[in-house]
Amino acid sequence: MVPALGRTRKHHFKHKAGRPVDCHNETYLHHLAKMVLFSALRDAIQMSHPYWFSRDRPVICSYYQERFGVSCTGQRAPYGTDLAAMFDRVELEAGVDGFVADILLSSSKSGARMLLEIAVTHPCDEPKISSGLPIIEISILSEDAANSLREGINAASGGTLCHNLPSPEAAPHLCTTPCHATGLALLLYKNGKAWYSEPAIENESPGQIQSDPHLVTHEIVDFQLGDRTRPWRTVLEHLGVFMIRQAFERGRPVKSCLLCLNNGGRVNDHDIYCVAKARNVWMSSSAIGCTDYDPADDDNDARLILGRLGEH
Question: Fewest CB atoms less than 10 Å from the CB: which of 51, 79, 92, 177?
Fold first, then answer.
């Protein structure tokens, strides 16, 4: 920089003429981020302060395990690793196994090493990634992003890639309040009716379902979080397996239009076309007491009928 001492504008400093060819935005951001990260890690190691590397890890919630035999694996939570506690040495532009790391962390006690790479416009080279060396690749797009490295590295917010690092172990968890979830309840009644419902799991219990005096047996399958509507193919797949098992493996009476040779295909969410009656009928209960009911003789015929229904 050189002083500008003109008569018109306020005195200030300006860049000297003949700017070096390598003085461009990428070099500036790369150097800034590297120096910020290096000084933050050096200070943390020397003063025994934590320097956190944060990323998400899976959380397994067993809230519904005892009641329904299912666990939720869809949640994630922040997980922090103190790099200053893991490593006692930090180096700039250090060589390691034929590569040069922007910043190299190492431990004199365990021999562990970790490369910290700054990516502005050029990502980490594939040979370096394929080397198997643990690498944290940090994308920097602004001065604010570079300066944020004083506080730690946050891979959970995006822009940071982990190469050759073991994934954090899942954390056990038990929600204090139930998440909204549904199950596919498959039901067989004493009159032979086989149908389904999609109860909100947090409002149900095995005892409530079994308390129905007309019910012979039931199963709850396809546990899922939220209010997603199950497609017909999914419902038919589970209901079909349930009916075939009850009818042909356990010898229980099952009367369902879905297993009848006279069914001409699903019309809508409630109706099926009956060939014998030449009209639409309720596919959930019309087989009960039907004089035209002609059920499949074995599980192979039943699977063929259900397969045709799945095509509609």
Answer: 177
